[in-house]
Amino acid sequence: MRATHGYTPGLRVTERALIRRMRRLPLPGRIHVQVGDQVTAEQLVASTELPGNVANVNVAHELSVTPEDVPGVMLFDEGDRVEAREIIAESRAFWGLFHSIARAPISGTIETVSEVTGQVLVRGEPISVEIDAYIDGTVVAVEGTETVVIETRGALAQGILGVGGEAHGAIKVLCDSPDELCHVGLIAEECAGCILVGGGRVTLDALRAAVDARAAAVITGAIDDVDLDDFLGYALGVAITGQEAPGTSLVLTEGFGDTPMRRRTFELLAARDGRRASVNGATQIRAGVIRPEVIVPEPGATWDADTEAEAAGLGVGSDVRLIRQPYFGRLAEVVELPERLETIPTEAEVRVARVRLEDTGEVVTVPRANLEIIEQ
Amino acid sequence: MADDQPLRSVLATDCGSTTTKAILIELVDGEYRLRVRGEAPTTVEAPYEDVTAGVLNAVREVEELSGRTLLREGEIIRPQQGAEGVDAYVSTSSAGGGLQVMVVGLVRSMTAESAQRAALGAGAIVMDVLALDDGRRDYERIERMRELRPDMILISGGVDGGETRKVVEMAELVAAANPRARLGASYELPVIFAGNVEARELVSHVLERTTALTVVDNLRPTMERERLGPARAEIQELFLQHVMAQAPGYPTLMGWTDADIMPTPAAVGSLIEAVAGREGINVVGVDIGGATTDVFSVFGGTFNRTVSANLGMSYSISNVLAEAGLDNILRWLTTHSDPRRLGNDIRNKMIRPTTIPQTLVDLTVEHAAAREALRLAFEQHKLLATELKGVQRQRDIADAFGAAGAQSLVDMMALDLIVGSGGVLSHAPRRTQAALMMIDAFEPQGVTRLAVDSIFMMPQLGVLATISEEAATQVFYRDCLIPLGTCIAPAGTASPGTPCVRVNARIGGDDIALDVPAGEMRLLALDEGQVAEVRIDPTRRFDVGAGRGRSVSARATGGVVGLIIDTRGRPLALPSDAEERAAAIRRWHEALGAYPDGADEAGAEAVAS
What we know:
Helix content of chain A: under 10%
Oligomer: heterodimer
Number of strands of chain B: 24
Helix content of chain B: 25-40%
CATH architecture of the largest domain in chain A: 3-Layer(bba) Sandwich
Distance between the termini of chain B: 66 Å
Distance between the termini of chain A: 36 Å
Radius of gyration of chain A: 28 Å
Strand content of chain A: 35-45%
CATH topology of the largest domain in chain A: Glucose Oxidase, domain 1
Structural class of chain B: alpha/beta
Shape of chain B: globular
Shape of chain A: elongated
């Protein structure tokens, strides 16, 4: 039996996309908008309250009584409100000679009083959750009291890996070309609140300067793996991100090493210098893939959007990018797709493609698994 | 078809998190054989959100490859009608992240560890283990339960007639956390209580209002006894009734199958357990995937499974780098690789997980990472596959000088068979590479058979065994298991070049005598189906199973690699000097024919460029 491998679907980079983003509360709550409303990225669209955290106090232990005696020494009942440090139970022994008390560990509500363990649980204040629109656009759906869908027309560029969550701001292009090193000298005070667009590899110093300048996000081609670890403060083990708080969100369009941003992405972003955009660094490279993204809405646009790229297949003439050594990052055009499996230098028998490298014109053979269609 | 008729054909699928794999098995001339295999992307996630779509696509590929009609109106034709359809359909599933369980116990190394073993044995991923001695405060435990959103919670604690109050205390924390299930917002979280029988009523009182509580026999009824069966069975039952029933498309899929859908690792585990039982041997099985590595073992009839959730060859390969450290990966390479480039290459594999090595250098880097992933996963396994902790036993002199903890059940000298599975082992361009990776990572001692799963169909065969053990067994030995051969590895250490072992072997009528000094590897041709009578005479510093310097006679089974003699010593220590180490590795590769000629030199050139 032989293994077969297909090509890797590429990342979407398009000037004309119809983008819908679902904004969902973790629990039912309140929706603050209606279908048809125009919203801005930072506008509150839904909110709710999560049950508060719980803290416990072992009243039996504190008062040196048996668990069965705990209800008798309680000054409050289940459901009563208490304040932090307030006395919630007391006992007196030997005609009041020995007086013991137990205090509420936090402000909240008495949830349970246990006669078995002597524990009293106090539920803290509800935790407020507010969700903004994330993108400038129109509310096109409201589902129950949990979900809002926002739609916009505009440019969309997906990255390969991001860190940090959602951000929005004005695009500020730092580099003149997609292969220019994104270094600390390019970061200035005016970067505050902006989505910075670099080119090739970003340095650790540049990222730290972006955090100091309070930039909203950095979009660039690549980074060295050790620099990413230093930036995060730990080694990123699996590509499931979005919860980090590194100070500024980061979107890598290509990956690791000295790899320039693909020209199409760079030109798309450079042409929108100064425009408002939304960024999400959240990435999940497993089943149910989530890619980091940059969205640049085009207010008032009514054009028909490009079709989703999934329809595109690999064929002779397809523009591809090679995504594994020894050709990592090179662009090429498919010139032949042999039907039969072929033996590559590792001696593995795999499906291959013959491609013409864009920079040298050389025709090389690569496993189909190691190429990615450049979607239009 | 009458019930007493043998199955004529079976379709079996494994719905993985990324790919759904289908195999067609047919009864041909009285023998069950694998006919074809097909695969398609799994469709549990958006936009499809229906697992059956992926199953049907995989079955369509089987139809195309076999030329046999299996589907009609979007359903599998059953039973077989003429040349169409199959007599039975079975499936396993690990889609959507598999079965995720949180374990709660009293003492981490005792009841909590027993509960952990029960959950792992049932095929679950254990998200966290909460115990009184886990070093966390109560609010941290509650926050952790709320944050993780498991598929179910298994509560253990207290031997029968023992501690009650602390068990109820832990149950109260679960109630306070009121965790929501991962799938299906509207249903109550399944919770299993498998602790002190005397705490049942109190725990039920605390938990029955907020959770779907079931109570089973105590998994640790006494300190000396562990009884995991009832808890394992209940986990699998709840997996079907609650978790699967909430997953997209599974209610339909459950209606199609002729046996309960099993969690993928549980099916693999039951197959390995069956093999060990049938042959009366000790077995270690490993499945190294893109995201996780599962290790299974049966020693003295005791089954154990562990899953290393973040050790894998693609999605989790960066975690292998983080946990093993760059130096441990570099030590398996024959060239002084540029650390920066190596780190970037490994990270690029993580974000483009479906790519495959094209160059020999890249291949050796992946194999180096695989060795470390396997080694770390096996270390974790050895820590959990132990005798029961907390049991008083007589200490002998070795205990007095050794570690005070419970003894691991994993005894490498007593191990008979290692079965490797997963892309990096099953698809290694040369089978010798798979053998070498397993030897380097697991360090077998004495005489050990090695095998790989040809195309990773152990899950399907594990679930097939529930309706036809005969079919599962025949396909396992004829089409699934590829025997690599036998490894003879004396335990002990000595300077390279000093005498280590003499091996006398009778192979195909020829008598072969071979003296192998310490620090070497040798390969003798011993084909699949051949058995060699071997006599192994170690020198006085080495042991091959009968004690230092004592001879052992054994039967060595052949395979596609042959008979490997590994005198590098146990524990395996690579030369600390980089030049010496690279030279030694080149020598071992050459002795085994592990890589194409010039592979190691190609590495040097590529790195230099």
